[in-house]
Amino acid sequence: MNEIALLLAATLNAGTVLAIAALGLLINERAGIVNLGAEGLMLVAAVAGFAVAVRTGSDTLAFGAGALAGALLASVFGILVIWLNTNQYATGLALSLFGAGFSAFVGQPFTRERLGERASFDIPLLSDIPFVGPALFKQHPMVWVAIGLTLALAWWLTRSRSGLILRAVGESPESAHALGYPVRRIRLAAVVAGGALCGVAGAYISVVYTPLWVEGMVAGKGWIALALTTFATWRPARVLLGAYLFGGVTMLQFHLQGQGVQIASQFLVMLPYLATIAVLVLISRNAAWIKANMPASLGKPFSPGG
Amino acid sequence: MFKLESRAAPSSAMALASPLIALAVTVAVGVVLFLLLGKDPLLGLRMFFVEPVKSGYAWSEIAVKAVPLILIALGLALCFRANVWNIGAEGQYILGAIFAGGIAMQATPDSPRAIVVAILLAGVVGGMMWAAITALLRDRFNANEILVSLMLVYVAEMVLSYLVYGPWRDPQGFNFPQTVTFAKPTQVPRLFSGLRVNLGLIVALVAVVGMAVFLFRLFRGMQAQIGGPAPMAARYGGFSSRASLWTALLTSGGLAGLAGALEATGPLGQLTPYVPVGYGFAAIIVAFVGRLHPVGIVFSAVLMSMFYIGGELAQSRMQLPKSITGVFQGLLLFSLLASDTLIHYRIRLTKKPVRPEVSKGPQTTGVAA
């Protein structure tokens, strides 16, 4: 019983990383931009967050540093793809490759550092409830932030004027431009916001999830987050659900290892990656389903008057 | 302020100059980086651009790294030309090494020398099979090849790790995760005594010529390049974009697998968890910097190998982390993509600031500096 509660708690924790990053990418993609650089952004943000956490001891500042690092790198990406019309895939890949190298380079001195005692976030009384307590009420506040963000984004995209404009930019930048909206600046804002969220997710990995810095520690979570937006057919609530599903798969591997299941650990580590492929296949086989929800101008460059 | 103005036709001079501009930018950033780190920038540049090419031995080491990069990048060039975004070459490389290793492990000191051929072919098959998964899922289920091929890299790493920690572990290996050292007949013949460069260099150069002929001289090669970016045109011409997808992925998978096989039976001589060193990812940069052209790829692979060796030298002689190589590689691709803008646009100085969203004229786009 208690074990299941802990598994559930760990699932929410693991899912939070994916959810925050994928929600950021969702904002990008709703504006028509695919950022394949998510993995690189998250790696650099993970170093930035960890460095600040080590130096200042403040998790909040660490998340801020992660967000800033993510936003900065994303803005470079954004200027290249939005103003210089470089290929989005190639530029995103460049960002991922650069991020991997750069984070390894600047992270070198931090590989031997450790963070101090991690704060406990037990909610008094509620955390003492059997089962539900350890599963839900001992979580890092970021878990709740992810849920709040999902709700806010779902509301904003469908119920607010600015959300509608963002979607218009992603569906038909020509029409949005004709209506007088600054398409390129809106896209840049979306890219920067998405990058900042990826950055927060990256910092969460190195500061809370596995509190240390190791080269390449994001381990494909940026790419899984990219797959999640497709899986969720660009809907915030489904992103959160998908993130928890993947968090569950990730945690299942540790759980099974703990149970002494006679499978080589390597096959368990493969699980989230195989699950990503399986999910992509299941979702993508229905072309109509994808097309109905996909932002119509996703990945396509736009230049006003050109 | 300045603005970008469309050229009437893409500038072919700029297409060639762009990689050089990108290199210049990367070097400039490198100099700043060395200064910031308190290192002598001239010494730093020497590590990257002089030391790696100053002797026959040094050139041999360049070739050892350039061979896998050339082979993988050739396949990727075909993929990217066909608009197939295979970014999982690293996984196809690993499978090539695994398949090759599986045969090489069986060899004894008395095995015939021809076993090398079987080993290399096994590598090709391994890489092709791994790429075929991506092709199949894309073809049958429309699953995004970027994500599938990349996820398969992680899976391939785990398969390799399972084999060298488990069933393939050398019983006399003091519990290290490694296979037996392959018997002598499996070794790819070296070209010169005392130098590590081997027959793989000839294989890679043959592949360069082969790819050039395929891309620019064969009808099938033209079909493969049209099917991806213009499926409608391809259908009108009577050839399918599906064939183009499979051709691109199987070719690049096979070439990456060959690279893995050459690495396993050449410089490495056994399988360990450290077979993958990122050649599959670096080759993406090699392909773009080489303008997706077989000859250009040879030059950019040499450049990329200089970055690798320069990084190692910077570590041993200047106490800089080896990962500086990755920084420079990423920077190079970034600057290349940015300076590629000059192929399609020219920069015009303007007196008045131009607001980006209200620029007039059918062919003009403004950029806020």
Question: How would you describe what is shown here?
Answer:
The complex is a heterodimer of chains A (306) and B (369). Chain A contains 13 helices and no strands. Chain A is an all-alpha fold. The termini of chain A are far apart. In chain B, helix 3 runs parallel beside helix 7 (200-217), helix 4 packs across helix 11 and helix 5 packs across helix 6 (145-165). Chains A and B meet through helix 3, helix 4, helix 9, helix 10 and helix 12 of A and helix 5, helix 6, helix 11 and helix 13 of B.
Oligomer: heterodimer
Weakly predicted, low-confidence segments of chain B: 358-369
Number of helices of chain B: 14
The total of beta strands of chain B comes to 3
Structural class of chain B: mainly alpha
Main β sheet profile of chain B: 3 strands, antiparallel
Radius of gyration of chain B: 22 Å
How is the biggest beta sheet of chain A arranged? none
The fraction of residues in strands of chain B falls at under 5%
Report helical residue fraction of chain B: 55-70%
N-to-C span of chain B: 6 Å
Q: State the share of residues found in helices of chain A, binned by percent.
A: over 70%
Hey, which two chains have the biggest interface? A-B, 55 and 56 residues
Order of helices and strands of chain B: EHHHHHHHHHHHHHHEE
Mean pLDDT of chain B: 90
The percent range for strand residues of chain A is: under 5%
The best one-word shape of chain B is: globular
Provide a count of the helices of chain A. Answer: 13
Order of helices and strands of chain A: HHHHHHHHHHHHH
